[in-house]
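Can't paste images in this forum, so I'm doing it all in text. The chain is below; anyone willing to post the predicted structure tokens underneath?
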Amino acid sequence: MRALIAFAFAVLASLPAQAEIEIQEVSTPGGIDAWLVEEHSIPFVALELRFRGGTSLDAPGKRGATNLMAALLEEGAGERDSQEFAIAVESLAAEFSFRVQDDSLSVSAKVLTENRAEAMELLRQALVSPRFDGDAVERVRGQVLASIDTDKTDPDAIASQTFHALAFGNHPYGTSSDGTEESVSALTRDDIVAAHAAALARDRVYVSAVGDITSDELSDLLDTLLGELPAEGAPMPDRIDYTLGGGVTVVDFDTPQSVMIFAQRGMKRHDPDFFPAYIMAQILGGGGFSSRLMEEVREKRGLTYGVAAYIYPMDLSEMFMGMVSTVNARAAETVAVVQDEWKRLAEEGVSQEELDRAQTYLTGAYPLRFDGNGRIANILVGMQMDGLTPDYLRTRNDKINAVTVEDIRRVAAELVDPEQLHFVVVGKPEGLEATN
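Text version of the structure:
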């Protein structure tokens, strides 16, 4: 059966390139809304659930509770303990995964049609009646604590945690979603149960399904799967504006390379100028070797293997940020080059040649993202959470191609702010002094 799933991935990977994806909007009697793409050529379906809120819903003093809870969802449910649950899932050739981030908790399921009812019953139990057995809690707690300990010697983790603490302070965005040694060690089973009720609720769930299932079948499945969850979860945290000023923060750490995160204020996903900003960021620091930062930082000067910059809209704030690493001896030079490119973008915008190249890449690469049931389901849920409509799949490339050089120059002049660009540098950077 696992071989059949692998074969299904291979066959379905080519389908989006051959035909436009047709999305059905499904509303269940129980009030669950979902998007469905029917594909009956292979007896297989991918289901994606996403609950808005994620680790940002941690209660005060309980940082890490949602992360720990999410890791325990597949560690036993209903009548089955952790091992029994894993054996039951494997015997049906089903695949479940549970992931949590700052703004969402995601549940992915891949099941064969012949086993769908039994597999969905197991998933229902994991969502509605996880056991949170003591031995499982302590084992997973130990894994989380080990990860927290590892982060203390990881320059990337140190840079990320330092930057977010400076930018967001006491807001949930300002601390690691894993929690601290103290907060995780103190979490009780009651805290985990409370985190479950806060995060998994019907008022914040987004759903998509792709594969061998009809709209009526999906409707019945979802009301059974989610009907026993709480109607409402915990209130969402307050929004926090990014207000960190420009400068350089240096974290002394004994490593041969300096790891850097740099950022300024960003743009909301639904800003009318989002597409010009998105393409602008692609030209400045997008993937591949054609971006300005790759050209100036890597190709011309050999300062790094890779550098990136991107627009990063979150649910409760937004940033225009990037990252790079370089040998300590050339850290100051790397900061200066990034600052110069930020300034050049603000003052000059982009050229028509750069825009043409970015539009060709972004429109050509987009269909390649739809390379299987699971990927499609994941994209569709993300669209729903972003407040997009199904026709976005058809209109997205038109929006990309409609952007002009003048649009980007105007947005660059308004958004890009070299004076407010803040660097967090972890390492022993030579010639680079903290200025914040």
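Residues 134-151 form the longest helix (18 residues). The chain is about 45% helix and 20% strand.
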